[in-house]
Amino acid sequence: MIEIKNIEKSFGDTKILKGVSAVFETGKTNLIIGQSGSGKTVLLKSLLGIFTPEVGTISFDGRIYSDLSNEEKRELRTEIGMLFQGSALFDSMTVSENVGFPLKMFTNDDKHKIQDRVDFVLKRVNLVNAHHKLPSEISGGMQKRVAIARAIVNNPKYLFCDEPNSGLDPNTATLIDNLIKEITEEYNITTVVNTHDMNSVMEIGEKIIFLKNGFKEWEGTKEEIFRTDNEAIVDFVYSSNLFKKVREAYLKG
Fold it and tell me: Per-residue pLDDT for 241 more than 90?
C-alpha cells in the first residue's frame, strides 16, 4: 500500500499539487486520471521520488519516504518496477538483455539465475520466441510486453505505469490493460497507472483518483463513475457519445 497525505508541489510561483491525499491499494490497479495540466504526471513523479513535495508525506507500507536514509531509499527503489510511456527499451540490446538489465544492475545473481528469471517473465507476458530479437524487430505491442517483463523481473512490490497504452491500437491496448491487471493480482503488487485512456478506466479502474487543477476532485471505482453526480468527472469521462450511452444504459439498469 502507498499512502499520500496532503501533498503539495510547486514549481516557482505555480502550485501544481494542492493538498492531495489518497491511498493506493495493494493487489489493485490504482489509476490517476485527469486532463493535461491537472497534476497527474507530477504526482506520479513525486511517488517515484523524482520530485520532492514541499508539504505532505508519501509512505510505502508505513515507510515515510522523506524519513528514509539514502541507503533505505536505494533499497526501496529495488522494490519498484516502472513501465515507461514509450517502453524505453535499449535499442542495442536484445529482448532478453533488456529484461535482464535490472537484475544485472541491482542483484548479485549469476548469469544462469538471471536467464532463468528472464525466461520466466517473458513466458508470463506471452513472449517465448523473441529473446534474441532487437526492439526494432518487434511490434509496438510486443515492445510494451517486453517493458512489462522488465518492470516485474525483480519481483517488485510497487509497479508504476506511465500511459501504458500510448501509441497502441485499441485491441492491443486492451491486452496490455488486462496483462497489467492480471500481474497485479497474481503477484499482489501495488500498481499505480497514470492514464488519459478512458478505455483503461473502464477495463481496469479498481481505484481511480481524478485530479483537476491540482486538487483531488474525485475518487472511486469504475462502477461508481457510472453513478456519480460529480460534474467534473462526468464531463471528463463521458466527453464521447459512446461513454455517454454506456452510462445511460447502466443507470437504466
Answer: no
User: At residue 238, does pLDDT exceed 90?
Assistant: no
Q: State the cell numbers at 227.
A: 453513478
**What 3 state SS string does 54-98 have?**
CEEEEEECCEEHHHCCHHHHHHHHCCEEEECCCCCCCCCCCHHHH
Cβ atoms of 120 and 174 within 8 Å: the answer is no
- Note the maximum CA span of the chain: 59
The span from the CA of 221 to the CA of 218, in Å, is 10
Place of cell 501509441: 167
Looking only at the bridges linking them, the beta strands covering 158-162 and 80-83 are parallel
Q: In what order do the strands lie in the sheet with 215-220?
A: 80-83, 158-162, 190-194, 29-33, 207-212, 215-220
Give the global pTM.
0.90
| Tens-digit pLDDT profile for residues 95-109 | 999 999 999 888 888
Mean pLDDT of the chain: 90
Burial (CB count within 10 angstroms: exposed 0-12, middle 13-18, buried 19+), residue 44: buried
